[in-house]
Write the structure tokens for this entry.
Amino acid sequence: MRIGEAIAFGAATIVNAMATGKGAAFGINLWTKAKVILKKGNSIKVKILSDSKENPALAEKVIEKIFKKFNINGLGAYIETESNIPIARGLKSSSVAANAIALAATAALKEKLSDLELINLGVEAALEAKVTVTGAFDDACASYFGNIVATDNIKRKIEAFYSLNKDYEVLIYVPKEKSYTINVNINKIKKLAFLVDYVYKEALKGNFWEAMSLNGLIYSAVLGYNSEIAINALLYGAVAAGLSGKGPAFVAVALKEDVIDNIVNAWRKYKGELIKAKMNRKKAYVIDEP
């Protein structure tokens, strides 16, 4: 029996790519762990431990693409994922899962792919599984490499990479309702492309925290979320705060933990869960067998 296990980390939005096809994101230290067990036969079975009601299509597509890449026939797989990333809240759970599953599957096969080959394979699977509008190449790169990345999602090209030497604190507000990317009105969003393009250019200049806050205001307005949540975080000292992805989660970034504690107090009035995290600077990795 061949087994592979891997971990990929979470990410949050700096600039949402849905309007222009270009986006930016940063890594956070939430995680998804994937285990892939190869077995005889052609069946692919998926168990999502953190939310058993979730659609297994993404995991199935990733395995199908890995098998096709290496011309594997007559093999099936059992995939198990566990995660502390809330699903369908704009916190990149799909991109993270795709990275972790692809890494675990290649490890189980004792094969190798380059980092970008592996990321692109997950992006293709996400598009086919209809869990993304743009392919979410920015989210996938931020999940896989950590730090801050800005990308052209259409060309699948990394346009900027910032490795930060500060330990940023992160606070995530997670409402109870879910929001699936496939249900978003993309035509409405694209009408604000000229504004989002400006914000993306600011991110490319290194003004990523200002870009994150402005992006959050734009997308909150067009998607109908309460921007007061982000504004409150900024008033209490966050260096950036905004809607992550297509929502409904909001993310605040600060340099000091006491600032995060102040934001916690400000955000307690909103219904939902608060999650403390940190910026992630580590790459996704295979868990080596003992």
